[in-house]
Design goal:
The protein is built from 9 helices and 15 strands. It is α/β, with parallel strands linked by helices and about 260 residues long. InterPro entries: ATPase_NBD (IPR043129), ROK (IPR000600).
Length: about 260
C-alpha cells in the first residue's frame, strides 16, 4: 500500500497528515502556525519537523499558496513578507522564493517522490467529481482557485490577483481581514456577489467553496447561489494529497 504525507500550507498555519491509497487519514492531522519571516530553508525544516511527528510515508504532496509551475515557485503572496499576510514584502525573501525549486528541494529533504502544487489545486483534487467543468474557490487568508475539466487539472491562474472592485483584488475583497471587518453576514453577501460575477466567466457545471472560511457562509446566501454551488470541508486540503497525483499526471509536476 502506497502512503502519502500530505501537507497543506497556508498563510496562517501548516497542516499535515498521512493518507492511505483511498485518501483516508492514517493519523490525526497536525497543525503548526506558519512561522515568519519564512525563507525557503526554514520552510523545508518546518515541514520536515511536522512530517517527523507523523508515520513514515512513501511519497509527499505539498500545497503552497501562489503560482507553482512544475514544482517551481513563480510567485507566492505570504511567504515573501516580513511578518505574514498583508505585511511588507521583504526584497531578500522575494528573491529567495522567486524561481525556487520547491519540488526538488522537498524531494531531496524527505527522500521520497514529491508533488508540489498550488494549495487550492490540492484542495480541489479532494472534492471534484471528475465530470464536466468544475471550479474550486478556497476562502481563507485570501482567495484560492483551481479549475478542472473532466477531472483534468487545468494550468493554474492566480485569480486572486485580478481586480474586482474599487481597485482591489479578489484576495483583498473576500480575504480574512475583510471578513473580520464586515462580519459574517455582510461578508457572505459579498461572496454571493463574487460567485454571481464569476458565473458567466467560467460557466461551471459545479462550483466548490472550500477553505477555512467557507463554513462561515450564511445558509441564506448559499441558497441564493444555486444548486450547482456547494460548500466542502477544509480537510480536503489534506485528503486531496492522494488524488492530486492522478489529476496532475500529465503536467510534469511530480519528482520521483
Amino acid at each position: 500500500m502506497v502512503t502519502t504525507l500530505a501537507i497543506d500550507c497556508g498563510g496562517g498555519g501548516i497542516k499535515a497528515s498521512v493518507l492511505d491509497e483511498a485518501g483516508t487519514m492514517r493519523a490525526r492531522p497536525l497543525r503548526v502556525p506558519t512561522p515568519y519571516p519564512l525563507p525557503p530553508a526554514l520552510f523545508v525544516s518546518t515541514l520536515l519537523d511536522l512530517g517527523g511527528r507523523l508515520p513514515t510515508a512513501d511519497r509527499l504532496t505539498v500545497g503552497v499558496p501562489g503560482m507553482i509551475r512544475h514544482g517551481v515557485v513563480v510567485a507566492t503572496p505570504h511567504y515573501v513578507t516580513r511578518s505574514g499576510p498583508r505585511s511588507r514584502v521583504d526584497p531578500d525573501l522575494l528573491a529567495e522564493w522567486s524561481g525556487w525549486d520547491a519540488r526538488g528541494a522537498l524531494a531531496d529533504a524527505f527522500g521520497v517522490p514529491a508533488l508540489v502544487l498550488n494549495d487550492a489545486e490540492v484542495h480541489g483534487a479532494g472534492v471534484v467529481a471528475g465530470t464536466g467543468c468544475e471550479l474550486v474557490l478556497t476562502l481563507g487568508t485570501g482567495l484560492g482557485s483551481a479549475l478542472f475539466d473532466g477531472g483534468v487539472l487545468a494550468p493554474h491562474l492566480e485569480l486572486s490577483h485580478a481586480p474586482v472592485r474599487w481597485g482591489t483584488t479578489y484576495d483583498t475583497y473576500v480575504g480574512e481581514p475583510e471578513r473580520r471587518r464586515l462580519g459574517d453576514a455582510f461578508w457572505s453577501r459579498r461572496i454571493r456577489q463574487v460567485v454571481d460575477g464569476l458565473r458567466p466567466v467560467f460557466r461551471w457545471d459545479r462550483l466548490y467553496l472550500g477553505g477555512g472560511n467557507s463554513r462561515l457562509i450564511r445558509p441564506e446566501q448559499l441558497a441564493r447561489m444555486g444548486d450547482d454551488v456547494v460548500v466542502v470541508p477544509n480537510t480536503a486540503g489534506i485528503v486531496g494529497g492522494v488524488r492530486a497525483w492522478e489529476l496532475s499526471a500529465g503536467r510534469r509536476d511530480a519528482r520521483t
